[in-house]
Design goal:
571 residues, alpha+beta, 3-stranded antiparallel sheet, 17 strands
Length: 571
């Protein structure tokens, strides 16, 4: 029977709950629990009571918990800090280089901010308990003092070791790897001569007035996990970027290959050049690429009777024609595909552009006719050169110049404009080009469906770039750095952030929770750690602290359980 028993120790009375039973005919205490002094028991009862006299908490603290804890677990599983510190050792006291870079990487994953703001962010996260760092050490100056040790060579070595580790640990699918390049605009001053990476070039986001930095990525088709990256000058085109990475691609192949019979590299037509394919021929990679359709009119004119449906292979609305021909100096398997959905999408887009050009040309024609009739006399009269330039600007978009017939004349020194839409050119465009893609590969044994699916998997690397341009997570920009070394370190931390987010998404999918990176981070961010502080239970006692989580939705509870986040809550 359970009872409460007092014990007197050094003149003080303490109470215990215990239960006695007869064992082998003798009374024995089978369990016992310390309750405290009388005032402790009274205070506990007051806190547990629902009466107005119950003890009220002193204050509560809300901490970012779910996303940071989950990503931290992955980082520790990969040994990010240890790998970095092995290649960039540091003497003296204070956090290691690996610790600084880990904190910056986790920040890019969930709440990208400047290095000057990281300390404030850190204080509001569970990292203050998981990482042995005082937030006062996370100043921008100390961060960059440590990052100055990270050279371009060190970044390559760190990435190589991390990739080998994640391939072993996560059993990634390496049969299809995706390569692509993009650029990111910056606000680096035009006259800053300390930076060679930020250059003016063709911005893929239309920011022609700003200096841009290029990023090339090699990722898996298995949740776009990065295996290789390179930061390069923004005015460098894709083909020379690919050429400069050939040796690195071969090195990475040798580091990651583990029982995979062959690895196929998939890239778009922007990387095509004879030199690139000559160099690729000497590597262990196979490839799937695409050709510029307008450079191969003979393939666009193939009879529709030569195309075969791929519906039975799980590709409804897709037809393909297969042949072999010499491409870039070698015999390749070429697959010309026609996609009904692509045809409809391209046709609708072009019809919208055609209607817009017709309206603009009509407006220009009416304006010129008003000058001819004398109804408009104010302003500078139009000139033939000006009108010709205006028309060229209107028809600058792809295909527009081929679809409109323009006749410019002049009457009494005033230009005249006549135009018509060329229906025959439109019919030919629909018949030969729209909806078609020309693929080529050295995987001669692959079926048409396998080649098409392989090339389509390129959307994974495009997804990776979109994630890195999302201002709310991973975000590579804005860059608050203006030297090449600092830009490289910043880009590397963003690539590591993409690695952690991609791996976390992959792990959740394997556990039966299929979410986009954005929704995954959003839901995990809503899992907060709630710490409630109560007054001391007695004299010379410390405040009583209770820690729990915020109220969780069904999805958040599933994430909490699947990732075993309970282990990061204080007992």
């Amino acid at each position: 029977m359970a009872s409460i028993a007092p014990k007197k120790i050094a003149g003080h009375t303490y109470y215990y709950a215990r239960e006695c039973k007869r064992v082998d005919g003798k009374p024995k205490i089978v369990w016992q629990r310390y309750l405290g002094k009388a005032e402790d028991i009274i205070a506990k009862c007051a806190r547990d009571s629902s009466t107005p006299g119950a003890v009220q908490p002193m204050h509560a603290a809300l901490t970012d918990f779910g996303a940071v804890a989950a990503l931290y677990d992955l980082a520790e599983r990969l040994g990010i800090r240890e790998v970095i510190d092995r290649h960039v050792p540091k003497r003296g006291s204070g956090p290691s280089v690996g610790t600084y870079l880990l904190v910056a990487t986790l920040n890019r994953c969930v709440a990208p901010c400047s290095k000057a703001s990281i300390a404030d962010w850190f204080r509001g996260t569970v990292l203050r308990r998981l990482v042995d760092v005082d937030a006062r050490q996370l100043t921008s100056q100390r961060y960059w003092d440590n990052m100055d040790r990270v050279s371009k060579k060190a970044i390559g070595a760190i990435e190589g070791d991390l990739v080998q580790g994640l391939v072993r640990e996560f059993d990634l699918d390496l049969e299809r790897l995706l390569f692509d390049a993009t650029n990111f605009f910056t606000f680096i001053d035009t006259f800053n001569e300390r930076c060679t990476l930020a250059q003016r070039g063709k911005s893929k986001e239309g920011r022609a007035s700003l200096r841009i930095v290029g990023l090339a990525l090699l990722v898996t088709s298995d949740f776009h996990v990065p295996l290789l990256h390179q930061t390069y000058p923004g005015n460098q085109t894709d083909a020379p970027t690919f050429a400069s990475l050939i040796d690195d691609l071969v090195t990475r192949y040798r580091q990651i290959i583990q029982g995979t019979e062959q690895v196929t590299l998939i890239f778009d037509k922007g990387n095509n050049s004879s030199d690139n394919f000559d160099a690729l021929e000497a590597t262990p990679y196979h490839f799937i690429g695409s050709l510029v359709p307008t450079q191969h009119p003979e393939l666009l004119d193939l009879s529709s009777r030569s195309f075969r449906s791929l519906a039975r292979d799980g590709l409804p609305g897709v037809r393909a024609c297969r042949l072999q021909m010499e491409v870039f100096g070698a015999l390749r398997t070429v697959v010309v595909t026609y996609n009904e959905n692509l045809f409809v999408a391209q046709s609708r887009t072009l019809l919208r552009e055609i209607a817009k050009r017709q309206e603009q040309l009509h407006t220009l024609q009416v304006w010129l006719s008003r000058w001819h009739s004398g109804r408009t006399t104010r302003g500078k009269p139009p000139t033939m050169a000006g009108v010709r330039k205006k028309v060229a600007g209107l028809l600058k978009a792809r295909h527009m110049k081929d679809l409109f017939r323009i006749d410019l004349g002049e009457q009494e020194g005033i230009p005249s404009l006549h135009y018509r839409f060329d229906q025959r050119a439109w019919d030919k465009l629909q018949r030969t080009l729209l909806g078609k893609t020309i693929l080529f590969t050295d995987n001669h044994s692959w079926s048409n469906a396998e080649i098409v699916r392989g090339y389509r998997s390129q959307h994974h690397v495009e997804r990776a770039f979109r994630d890195m341009k999302d201002p709310s997570l991973i975000s590579l920009r804005p860059q608050f750095h203006w030297t090449d070394q600092k830009i490289r370190v910043h880009v590397f931390s963003c690539v590591m952030a993409l690695t952690l987010c991609s791996l976390l998404q992959r792990e959740l999918q394997r556990l039966g929770i299929d979410l986009s990176i954005q929704k995954m981070i959003d839901q995990l961010q809503k899992i907060k750690e709630v710490t409630v502080v109560y007054p001391p239970a007695g004299r010379k006692k410390k405040p009583i602290i209770q820690t729990t989580t915020s109220e969780l939705s069904d999805l958040q509870q599933s994430l909490f359980d699947a990732l075993n986040l309970q282990k990061h809550l204080p007992s």
